[in-house]
């Protein structure tokens, strides 16, 4: 169903609509056709009200269904917390709510939605195993079982950039900060011991190692819901079937995107050169040592697996993967969007395993599929090219997702039966530890090049 004009009372307190912002003089957003500016000024309040109302209606319609849906967030992952190795398997939702829009500030001249979202309560279930390496050297034991958790409430606040696609709008870039509420935990260990606790922060729980994955789940829910709402917004109906105004609006958005995309591309070119010149195309990721167990008859026998000489690349293949968004607030300009690495693969030059006096060794090779990163710049005024980099006051690069990680291990021999355990470790290390190393290196390199502090 396409969107129709519905006038609403002006006393909707939760809704904040900015008719026309006052960006800095160099912002192309100031160069607006008079007819287009007048049309947007008249319609913008109703457009924002429609989005909030559509979100509310969608929440009411879907909540009874969505609350029963089970969705897998993670198949398996592994991370380190101090001296503990933590394995989480089959993390899935057991109870969820559809996102609810609390407030929205729609700026049609900048193709930006500033919003606050309530994701409600989220219940999760997973299998877990925790191994303390210090204890393991003295006594071969681990803790494992089933964990149920309920996050009481999660809210997010930030901005979403959208693009024009034909007659409709599509949410494209997300810049959100999450406030994850109190967490109730209930565990059933493999020894049938039950325990319960309540923690004020996710960082006080086993889930702190996968906070990014949980936030990505929330963002995907918002992206999907926002997509359902925006697809019903017809630009032609929005502009009263005035094709000339639609053309002006789309053209202006495209021209604005070309400017900011050009800025990002002009920044990335010397960054790629810096990466090559400073020999950071391939970066060291060190190694790791883990304990594993394998059933021999009715007995679990422990062994060790150690890899060294790890490298990953190619950082010099960093590129822009889509249109960037830009949001001007007074003299402050926020530029945000998606990047990627054209090539992302690695290896460990040597590994050795020890199990029941068997010690195979070999090499590990890692390849990946699609990856995605976010880049956010904050500037003091508009920048139109590399000559304006002095205006950049903060920067954040975050390679946050890598898909289809494939691991090839040579020479395992008799240990082929536990290869899935080794692969799970390595995949998780790539998605956690390696991403942290890459993010730190790229952030430091770009900040040093721009001359800004971390």
Automatic annotation (TrEMBL):
Signal sequence, renumbered to the chain: 1-18
- Please give the superkingdom of this protein's source: Eukaryota
Transmembrane helix is among the record's keywords:
yes
**InterPro entries the record matches:** Mite_allergen_7_sf, Mite_allergen_group-7, To_sf
> Which UniProt keyword terms apply here?
Membrane, Signal, Transmembrane, Transmembrane helix
> Membrane-spanning regions, if any?
407-430
Q: State the Pfam families in the record.
A: Grp7_allergen
Q: What is this protein called?
A: Putative 50 kDa midgut protein
- In the record, what lineage is assigned to the organism producing the protein? Eukaryota, Metazoa, Ecdysozoa, Arthropoda, Hexapoda
């Amino acid at each position: 169903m396409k969107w129709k004009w519905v006038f609403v009372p002006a006393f909707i307190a939760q809704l904040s609509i900015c008719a026309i912002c006052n960006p800095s003089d160099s912002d192309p957003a100031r160069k607006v056709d008079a007819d287009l500016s007048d049309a947007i000024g008249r319609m913008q309040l109703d457009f924002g009200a429609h989005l909030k109302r559509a979100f509310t209606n969608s929440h009411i319609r879907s909540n009874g269904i969505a609350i029963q849906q089970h969705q897998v967030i993670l198949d398996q992952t592994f991370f380190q917390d101090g001296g503990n190795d933590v394995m989480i398997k089959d993390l899935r939702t057991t109870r969820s709510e559809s996102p609810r829009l609390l407030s929205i500030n729609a700026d049609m001249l900048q193709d930006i939605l500033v919003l606050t979202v309530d994701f409600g309560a989220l219940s999760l279930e997973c299998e877990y195993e925790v191994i303390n390496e210090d204890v393991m050297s003295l006594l071969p034991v681990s803790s494992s079982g089933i964990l149920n958790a309920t996050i009481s409430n999660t809210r997010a606040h930030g901005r979403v950039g959208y693009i024009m696609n034909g007659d409709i709008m599509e949410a494209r870039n997300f810049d959100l900060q999450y406030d994850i509420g109190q967490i109730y935990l209930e565990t059933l260990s493999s020894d049938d011991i039950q325990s319960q606790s309540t923690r004020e922060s996710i960082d006080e729980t086993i889930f702190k190692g996968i906070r990014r994955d949980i936030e990505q789940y929330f963002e995907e829910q918002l992206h999907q819901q926002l997509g359902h709402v925006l697809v019903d917004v017809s630009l032609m109906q929005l502009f009263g079937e005035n094709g000339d105004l639609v053309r002006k609006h789309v053209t202006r958005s495209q021209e604005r995107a070309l400017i900011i995309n050009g800025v990002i591309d002009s920044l990335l070119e010397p960054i790629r050169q810096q990466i090559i010149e400073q020999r950071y195309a391939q970066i060291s990721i060190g190694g790791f040592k883990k304990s594993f167990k394998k059933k021999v008859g009715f007995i679990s026998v422990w062994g060790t697996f150690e890899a060294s000489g790890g490298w990953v690349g190619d950082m010099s293949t960093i590129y822009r993967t889509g249109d960037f968004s830009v949001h001007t607030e007074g003299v402050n300009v926020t530029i945000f969007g998606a990047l990627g690495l054209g090539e992302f693969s690695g290896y460990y030059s040597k590994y050795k395993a020890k199990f029941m006096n068997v010690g195979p060794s070999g090499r590990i090779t890692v390849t990946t599929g699609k990856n995605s990163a976010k880049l956010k710049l904050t500037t003091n005024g508009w920048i139109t090219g590399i000559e304006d980099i002095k205006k950049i006051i903060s920067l954040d690069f975050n390679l946050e997702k890598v898909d289809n990680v494939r691991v090839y291990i040579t020479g395992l021999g008799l240990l082929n039966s536990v290869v899935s355990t080794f692969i799970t470790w390595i995949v998780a290390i790539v998605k956690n530890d390696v991403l942290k190393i890459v993010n730190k290196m790229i952030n430091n390199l770009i900040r040093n090049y721009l001359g800004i502090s971390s």
